[in-house]
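For reproducibility, we list the full input for the adenosine-5'-diphosphate complex.
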Amino acid sequence: MGVLTAVRGDITGQEVDAVVNAANSSLLGGGGVDGAIHRRGGKSIVRECRELRASAYPDGLPAGGAVATTAGLLPARWVIHTVGPVWSRTEDRSAQLASCYRESLAVARELGARTVAFPAVSTGAYGWPLDDGARIAVAAVQEAVGKEDFDEVRFVLFDDRSYESFARRIG
Ligand code: ADP
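The corresponding predicted structure, in tokenized form, follows.
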């Protein structure tokens, strides 16, 4: 098994050191992955997010950034919240999307997390075309894991189409 893997599944059930949340910049919850993580993880996660808003991020976390909380009732130890860019037809925001993956892995490394699970950031409510989102994700993670020490970086895809798109790129 290579360091990069892809599975079909639910990010909230992953038994890894850290799961990444496709958060929004408020850090206070939303739909999709964000809703599922807060529902299953319990109230301690949003409590920590509120503290982050009150301290380091009064204006919210900007797109491309990442920050960790503990993972409450989830099997993981940490949730790394990252804010994907909203897809734009007129502006190229690829660098922000790549930054989500890179910054999340930098936070993971600081925490000592050796296994990390990512959703397909920005490809849901934020409208990023799936295939392009997968391309950017895999390239960014491949580049980062070349320099860092992880046992597994797992992409967790919710449907067949997303799974195929990621799996094909990982090989
Ligand atoms: P964003 O707002 O960054 O687009 P979303 O949470 O809306 O984030 O969607 C990101 C991707 O995650 C989409 O492909 C969506 O189908 C998928 N997704 C939604 N719920 C889950 C889940 N529980 N586990 C894994 N992936 C999920």
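DSSP finds five helices and six strands in the chain. The chain has one domain: 3-170. Both points were considered when choosing residues for closer inspection.
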